[in-house]
Inverse folding.
């Protein structure tokens, strides 16, 4: 009788620890490197996405975001995910234009200059980009546009001639090429490091959104922001393909639902942030406004050159994206 009780309670204890163990085995943690600061809206959206997945899986999958390039620097995030050093992460994919020109579809000057057109361009490009990423061992979850890109300087600029010799911070091939075609010297610098680069004079100008200038408080070094609305590049959240294929269907469903929500709220935040951050630059003391007509004309001609160069490099698949986009407008 006594023995029986002991056996019973030992059995209960074992059962209890089995529950704890299986709970522990199921709870998984994914570190998610992000290139941009925690205050940036993309990072805020990623944090909400991570929370959504945690809630939706009942704590079964915990995604921990690491902003500001603290886990992997922007330029290393894609490789880290491909090689399985990180299961998931966020990256500006046009930064990888040197691997494949198709990654630069969203940085073609004056092709898609509004949020609506950027969405249409994304719809036209998504199948091709999903396939390209898949071939590289990556599964695409969601993509969110940055606000329209404008030009930052530390002096008034009214023509391309005014840009000659300026040290221009670039973030992908297209921005480096823009510098070359305008007589500036490109220097590649991650957003996380631009405040210092401007303060020390390593760079003196850039093309970016109001959001990034606001995040990095560039009014401490720069004076002018010209709204050019040149393009709206995207950040992408990608998962290692092996990790994704080993993820059970119920978890995948939750991740997909949270990803869809993140793309929607991210786009909404990007729109809201456009005006907010331009006002922030003005409050910081910068002169903010549209570029002059003469400068715009010159930039459009450079845009045509860059569009032709991109189509040449991206081949039939690139042309098909542009054709599908034009047909959807
Ligand atoms: N900010 C990012 C990319 C585009 C943008 O608006 C950056 O400057 O790095």
């Amino acid at each position: 009788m006594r023995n029986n009780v002991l056996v019973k309670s030992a059995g209960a204890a074992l059962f209890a620890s089995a529950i704890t163990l299986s709970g522990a085995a199921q709870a998984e943690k994914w570190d998610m490197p992000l290139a941009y600061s925690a205050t940036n809206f993309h990072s805020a959206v990623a944090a909400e996405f991570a929370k959504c997945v945690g809630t939706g899986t009942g704590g079964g999958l915990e995604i921990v975001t690491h902003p500001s390039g603290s886990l992997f620097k922007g330029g290393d995030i894609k490789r880290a995910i491909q090689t399985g050093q990180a299961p998931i992460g966020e990256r500006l994919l046009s930064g990888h234009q040197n691997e494949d020109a198709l990654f630069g579809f969203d940085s073609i000057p004056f092709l898609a200059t509004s949020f609506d057109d950027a969405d249409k361009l994304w719809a036209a490009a998504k199948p091709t980009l999903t396939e390209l990423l898949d071939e590289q061992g990556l599964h695409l979850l969601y993509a969110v546009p940055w606000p329209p890109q404008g030009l930052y300087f530390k002096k008034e600029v009214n023509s391309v001639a005014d840009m000659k010799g300026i040290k221009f911070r670039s973030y992908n091939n297209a921005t480096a090429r823009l510098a070359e075609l305008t007589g500036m010297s490109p220097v590649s610098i991650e957003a996380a490091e631009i405040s210092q680069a401007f303060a020390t004079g390593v760079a003196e100008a850039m093309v970016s959104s109001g959001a990034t200038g606001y995040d990095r408080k560039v009014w401490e070094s720069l004076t002018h922001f010209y709204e050019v609305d040149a393009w709206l590049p995207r950040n992408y959240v990608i998962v290692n393909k092996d990790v994704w294929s080993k993820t059970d269907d119920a978890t995948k469903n939750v991740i997909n639902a949270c990803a869809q929500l993140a793309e929607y709220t991210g786009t909404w935040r990007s729109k809201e942030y456009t005006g907010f951050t331009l006002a922030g630059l003005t409050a910081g003391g910068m002169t903010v406004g549209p570029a002059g007509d003469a400068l715009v004309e010159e930039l459009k001609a450079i845009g045509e050159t860059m569009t032709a160069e991109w189509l040449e490099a991206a081949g039939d698949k690139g042309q098909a994206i542009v054709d599908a986009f034009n047909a959807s407008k």
